[in-house]
Write a structure and sequence with these properties.
There is one protein chain. The chain is an alpha/beta fold and 204 residues long. The protein is 50% helix and 12% strand. It has 9 helices and 5 strands, in the order H-H-E-H-E-H-E-H-E-H-E-H-H-H. Strands 1-2-3-5-4 form a 5-stranded parallel β-sheet, sandwiched between helices. Helix 3 links the parallel strand 1 and strand 2. It is globular and about 45 Å long.
Length: 204
């Protein structure tokens, strides 16, 4: 919940998916996201580098995990990456569908899975479900890659579409002070902003 709020404050986008997928990662684990194409290389180049590292990690049995986060696995380069990871049983987790435009209903109607790749469908708005799948995927990463397919699950009438708000309600239903945590985190973030831009704050 805290990580999701911090990511939202940073305008990271898809903060629920990102928080759930990365909460259990260690500092030495690797995350490659489609929007991260920088001087370090294009997204495809970074994925290639991540797979190369995953080969070394598997050989060394160091427990390191690589996470590839993308909108879709329809790209040929990503399909090839999945094939390489599967053949080598590499510790890679593919998190797909940040737009979450697909729904389980499409699967039930008999439409073929995109690229016919095996996947674990999970509700993109349910942070707890996302976290559970990510946690289990990280734990079993040494056995080969996992593909988490984020989908849009049907909502109950009146239910929120905001994943962070949904998590907040889930926490409160279990007697946890989510609102208090939110206020504390927001205060901390506001104080950091003031420290970084003292002149702007004084003028305001």
């Amino acid at each position: 919940y805290e990580l999701a709020l911090r990511l939202r404050a940073e305008n990271a986008g898809c903060e629920a998916v990102l928080a759930a997928a990365t909460a259990d990662l260690r500092a030495e684990d690797r995350v490659v996201r489609a929007s991260d194409g920088t001087a370090a290389g294009t997204f495809e180049e970074q994925v290639g580098a991540a797979l190369h590292q995953a080969h070394a990690d598997r050989a060394r049995k160091n427990g390191r995990v690589s996470v590839v986060i993308c909108d879709s696995m329809s790209d040929a380069a990503l399909r090839e990456a999945w094939t390489r990871a599967s053949r080598g049983k590499l510790p890679v987790i593919f998190v797909e569908g940040l737009g979450a435009e697909e729904t389980p209903a499409k699967r039930r109607k008999g439409e073929p899975d995109e690229n016919a790749l095996p996947a674990i469908p999970v509700d993109a708005q349910d942070v707890v479900a996302l976290y559970r799948v990510a946690h289990e995927s990280i734990a079993r990463a040494g056995s080969g890659p996992t593909r988490m397919l984020c989908v849009s699950w049907p909502r109950e009438l009146g239910a929120t579409d905001d994943a962070v708000e949904h998590l907040e309600h889930w926490l409160e239903a279990r007697g946890l002070p989510a609102q208090q945590w939110r206020r504390e985190i927001e205060t901390e973030l506001d104080n950091k902003t003031t420290e970084q831009h003292p002149t702007e704050s004084a003028c305001a």
